[in-house]
Design brief:
single chain; 782 residues; mainly alpha; transmembrane helix
């Protein structure tokens, strides 16, 4: 059973948000030591998630739910199986180490509390993504990861590069999130449930749906943008503008793996189709090669690691897309291994930068004797990244080769994996050998080992990579096989071994990877120059394309605004009335439902009299010389309508009309006296003719619409409802008052609020002094 019960998982979800609220206070009082205290919160969450492992290994799943928006069938529900628990363990466990690392890396920074607050918000959002069962809840947390990553990437907001990277990440991942929202809602309606656990057990409902292609495209757009798949890969390396603790957390256990998590989660419902098994492996394979090739080009250690993350994400998507059980098992092991070695390597690079003053490959060397603990962490993590025994990365490489070899179109996917892993091997050697074992270079700062906060996380993750490799049988049964089963949707428990028990294609492929990786490493400098020259020749890339797209959108928006928002009220009114005329007449023309012009002969004399008042009022408004006069005369039409209400037995409505009309005239008149308006109509005769015709057209259209409605058979349902329930429910005899106050009370409250805000705006306008007394006096006289 879980340590504190399934319901306690809600508290584990809430914990990071509580820590986010406490961070600024604790950082102000305890400085960098606050990280020790704050790290307890994710550590407790880690223990809670760890307590689920035995039950899940035995085949159990856990679910808990709270009502959130029951009207729309949206629950705050969580679902724990092998996939979600492993992700939750990585997020909370590595999150604990990153919290400690942040205290050492940002020691003395004036905004440490703010940074930790953003970090915990991000942690809570990621936990919500992987634990949410309701797909609407999942989407809310999904978008929260985009917002919080924007805050983290742009933390150093005084630098233009940081601001650009933050905006770019938000636009790309946020845009993909909108596509994902549509895909999830469509999947929920087609699958008959908005609970992910029920969708995953719905069989082939989604695969056989006529909307499967639309759901697939929308879901992978969300996943590809979040997990930086080609051609959306460019935002991830740019996100290296963030402080290194963010990079370490972002790349190892959180945001960039959210897209991979989503694809793995949706595998039982969407996977196994020809579309799935074609698109995902192709884009994943391209991303793998693009990431490693661009990684070879870099000399900044953080950028090298960033591009290898892009490559690793491509590898995970490719393996997931094959839908082959062994390949997916390889993806699971590689994801687990990647989280350990990549988190460690980023912290290593951050420590080198912090203590040596640079992370440029050409300016560091021979650091092992000066930073031995960090050096050990670098070596162990690099060995795992390179896929060498006895690290868990070696097991991952063996299994994934076995999976691609036997998958559909396995030769192509194996070729992608071989080339990508060989370049990954060379880059792993670059990160470990050059900085720590290369010839000594004088660094900007006198390099030395950092504080325990700086190396505790990296050495812990590096050692875990070794321990999990040595004990892979137990780790496989307890953690990795349940995760694979959750992705496949069927039980899966293939026993893992550190070393192959027989000569297999996977072993030969591993040997080829090492050999090719060594060759690439030997010629790395020449390859770097060749790739740089090729990129320089090509010139254009997705990153530049993003800037061009944003610039194009801004220009289009500016052109559109300048075209539509001309500042001319006359044009705005004309456009409004043209649209009204279009809406009124097009349906009647298309359907032929014109009203019957009858009943005018039965009007009483006083009704004709009221109509004549309205017509005279219109004539007076049109011929008035000044706008204030026209506004006052405009009230005649409102009073005429109020008289009609009075004559037809609606005194309450008539009184309301009188009050609203009077108030409107007063407000408009007061406003007009404060505006510098021309005393005469400056329109040409042609413009006046057009406006008159348009006004008559709209007036006739509204009249015909009202006549059409009146000529329909009367439906007494609503009247009967109000008559029946006004007394019993609202306890009122006056039905009109009951409707206004009770049945549509919020609507009436909104109307009152609008009138109040309008009155306050007019009051403020009245108190504004005119620019010149002469203008003010002349306007008041009008």
């Amino acid at each position: 059973m879980p340590l504190f019960g399934v319901e306690a998982t809600f508290w584990a979800l809430l914990g990071p948000f509580v820590a986010a609220a406490l961070s600024p206070i604790l950082a102000k009082t305890l400085k960098h030591n606050a990280s020790w205290l704050l790290a307890i919160i994710p550590a407790l969450a880690f223990l809670q998630f760890l307590s689920f492992v035995p039950g899940i290994a035995a085949g159990q799943t856990f679910r808990a739910s709270l009502e959130w928006v029951p009207t729309f069938n949206v629950n705050f529900s969580i679902y724990l199986d092998g996939l979600s628990v492993v992700f939750a363990l990585l997020i909370s466990g590595i999150g604990t180490l990153i919290t400690l690392y942040s205290g050492g890396y940002l020691k003395g920074h004036q905004n440490l509390g703010q940074f930790l607050s953003y970090l915990f918000l991000f942690m809570g959002a990621m936990l919500g993504v992987v634990l949410a069962d309701n797909i609407i809840t999942l989407f809310v947390y999904w978008e929260l990861t985009s917002i919080t990553s924007f805050l983290l990437i742009g933390f150093d907001h005084l630098r233009r590069a940081s601001r650009r990277a933050a905006v770019q990440a938000l636009v790309v991942t946020g845009g993909g999130g909108l596509a994902l929202m549509a895909g999830l809602i469509l999947a929920g309606y087609q699958g008959g449930s908005f609970e992910m656990s029920e969708l995953l057990n719905s069989g082939d409902i989604l695969r056989e749906s006529p909307y499967y292609t639309a759901i697939f495209v929308l879901v992978i757009l969300g996943a590809f943008t979040k997990s930086a798949q080609f051609p959306f890969h460019f935002w991830l390396p740019n996100a290296m503008e963030a402080p290194t603790p963010v990079s370490a957390y972002l790349h190892s256990a959180t945001m960039v793996k959210a897209g991979v998590y989503l694809l793995m989660r949706m595998q039982p419902a969407l996977g196994g189709t020809e579309l799935w098994m074609t698109i995902l492996p192709i884009f994943g394979g391209i991303t793998l090669l693009v990431g490693t090739i661009l990684g070879i080009r870099q000399t900044d250690l953080k950028l090298v690691l960033a591009y290898t993350t892009v490559a690793s994400l491509g590898l995970l998507v490719m393996l997931t897309g094959t839908s082959d059980p062994i390949a997916i098992q390889g993806a699971v092991i590689y994801l687990f291994a990647h989280s350990l070695f990549k988190g460690s390597l980023f912290m290593v690079v951050g420590t080198v930068d912090h203590e040596a003053g640079t992370r440029d490959l050409n300016r560091v060397g021979g650091l092992f004797s000066l930073m031995p603990i960090t050096g050990v962490a670098a070596v162990l993590s690099a060995l795992s990244m390179a896929g060498l025994p006895p690290l868990i990365g070696f097991v991952a490489k063996e299994v994934l080769y076995d999976g691609t070899w036997h998958a559909v179109n396995g030769g192509l996917w194996t070729g992608f994996a071989l080339l990508g892993n060989a370049m990954m091997f060379a880059l792993a050697a670059t990160v470990a050998i050059k900085p720590f074992f290369g010839s000594k270079v004088k660094t900007p700062k006198a390099a030395h080992e950092g504080s325990i906060l700086l190396y505790a996380g990296s050495i812990t993750l590096a050692v875990l990579g070794l321990v999990t490799g040595l004990f892979i049988v137990s780790v496989g049964h307890q953690i990795l096989s349940p995760m694979t089963s959750a992705i496949l949707g069927t039980p899966f428990d293939e026993e893992l071994h550190l070393f192959p028990t027989y000569l297999s294609p996977a072993l030969y492929l591993s040997m080829a990877t090492v050999a090719l990786g060594i060759i690439i490493f030997m010629y790395l400098d020449k390859l770097r120059l060749i790739i740089a020259e090729i990129l320089r020749t090509i010139g254009w890339g997705p990153d530049k394309g993003f800037d061009q797209t944003i610039e194009g959108i801004v220009r289009f928006a500016g052109t559109l605004s300048n075209t539509i928002q001309t500042g001319s009220m006359v044009r705005y009114m004309r456009a409004t009335f043209v649209v009204i005329a279009f809406v009124l007449y097009v349906p009647m023309i298309l359907t032929g439902n014109w009203p019957k012009l009858e009943g005018f002969g039965s009007l009483y004399v006083y009704e004709w009299f009221i109509a004549a008042i309205a017509v005279i009022g219109v004539y007076a408004v049109v011929t008035a010389r000044y706008r204030v006069t026209a506004i006052v005369l405009l009230g005649i039409q409102g009073f005429a309508v109020a008289l009609i209400f009075l004559l037809f037995g609606a005194p309450d409505l008539s009184f309301t009309q009188f009050m609203v009309e009077t108030l409107s005239v007063v407000i408009l008149a007061l406003v007009m006296t404060r505006l510098n308006l021309k005393p005469t109509d400056a329109r040409s005769s042609r413009a006046k003719l057009f406006d008159t015709s348009l006004a008559l057209l709209c007036g006739a259209g509204i009249s015909m619409l009202l006549m059409s409605i009146v000529q329909l058979p009367f439906d007494p349902t609503l009247s009967e409802f109000f008559t029946q329930y006004s007394r019993t429910i609202a306890h009122g005899r006056n039905i009109v008052n009951v409707i206004l106050v009770d049945f549509r009370g919020f609507d009436t409250l909104g109307e009152i609020a609008v009138v109040m805000v309008t009155g306050l705006a007019v009051l403020a306008l009245i108190r504004v002094r005119p620019k010149s007394e002469g203008n003010s006096k002349s306007e008041n006289n009008r």
